[in-house]
Amino acid sequence: MVSTRRWMISATVSLLVGILVGGYLFAKSQPRSILALNRCDHCLSQADLAGLLGSAGVQRLGGHLPFVVLETDRSLVLQYPFAARHRHYVILPKRDIKDLGEVSPENSPDVVDLLYVARYLIEKHRLRNYRLYSNGPGGQAVTYLHFHLVADR
Prior knowledge:
Number of strands: 5
Number of helices: 3
CATH class: Alpha Beta
CATH superfamily: HIT-like
CATH topology: HIT family, subunit A
CATH architecture: 2-Layer Sandwich
Strand content: 15-25%
Helix content: 25-40%
Order of helices and strands: HHEEEHEE
Shape: elongated
Distance between the termini: 68 Å
């Protein structure tokens, strides 16, 4: 009887702590269709889950994430860890924006900052042969707006 009661108290406390921690981590994230009660074509997609976790990481950890090479008030730049022959940066807004289709007057300064950061990197490293691109929703591995700046070394 006592062990069952302890187990129930532990389970309840764990649930409440999980709700509080989850609420804190994901409070500034846009909702994603990870769980849905009705029919959903993209529920539990890896891209949405990665975007949700990425959003929480960027907003809560910021410059403490691995591979961060530059941070502004609105953006983070990560050195892409698997680029062997090219200089490759991933430029992310700190605000959770899923893709360019989600850009609004409210978050447009964040997107403009991404372009200024790309320009800064291009000038700092004297890049000449480079590509700056972002994939749309159908081509994103992570549902979180980001630009890739890829250049010859």
